[in-house]
Amino acid sequence: MSRALVLAVLAFCATGCLKSESSPTGPSGTASFHGTWTGQWVRTACSETGAGGTNCSGLPQTGFLEARLTQSGTTVDGQLEIETFIVSVTGQVDGDGALTLSGQGRFVTVTVTLASWRTTSNGSALTGNFTFVITPDDPSFGVTTVQAALQNVTKTG
């Protein structure tokens, strides 16, 4: 075999032979949030309108949190349980690997809205913050907005 032919074959293989023809099933590098995540939330701020300023004082400083999430590519949906409130959520994983969620749920005579949610995952734990709004059916009770941080939220399933 001539030296020129050997060099041509090596050059061809260097540009094409080592490439994989298989394609990934989802976006490369997308963080995974699929699963059940359990831990606590800690209130960082609370504000209210109406009700004479008693809603925030009646809310706990910390509470139970569980997120049961499914994921397809960068789209995430599922249920978020904040203490006794269950909220159906949907959202996206952004290019930085952060998950943003929004959603709404009902509990007895109130609507609970997940106004913002931004978290990151290291694969076994979530960190981040969220805001939820409690709106009673009876407007005389006022609207309460709670800002919270995730605490010790780990993947449990």
Secondary structure elements and pairings:
Layout: H1 3-17, E1 35-49, E2 62-72, E3 75-82, E4 85-93, E5 99-107, E6 110-121, E7 125-136, E8 143-155
Detailed description of the structure:
It contains one helix and eight strands; from the N terminus they run H-E-E-E-E-E-E-E-E. The chain has an eight-stranded antiparallel beta barrel with strand order 1-2-3-4-5-6-7-8. Strand 4 (85-93) and strand 5 (99-107) form a beta hairpin. With 157 residues, it is mostly beta strands.
Short description:
The protein is mainly β and 157 residues long.
Return residue spans where pLDDT drops below 50 for at least 5 consecutive residues: 1-26
CATH class category name: Mainly Beta
Q: Please report which band the strand proportion falls in: under 5%, 5-15%, 15-25%, 25-35%, 35-45% or over 45%.
A: over 45%
Round the Cα radius of gyration to an integer and report it: 24 Å
- In one word, what is the shape? elongated
Average pLDDT, all residues: 83
Helix-strand makeup class: mainly beta
State the major sheet.
Answer: 8 strands, antiparallel, barrel
Please name the CATH topology. Lipocalin
Task: Give descriptors for this structure.
157 residues, Lipocalin, elongated, disordered N terminus, mainly beta
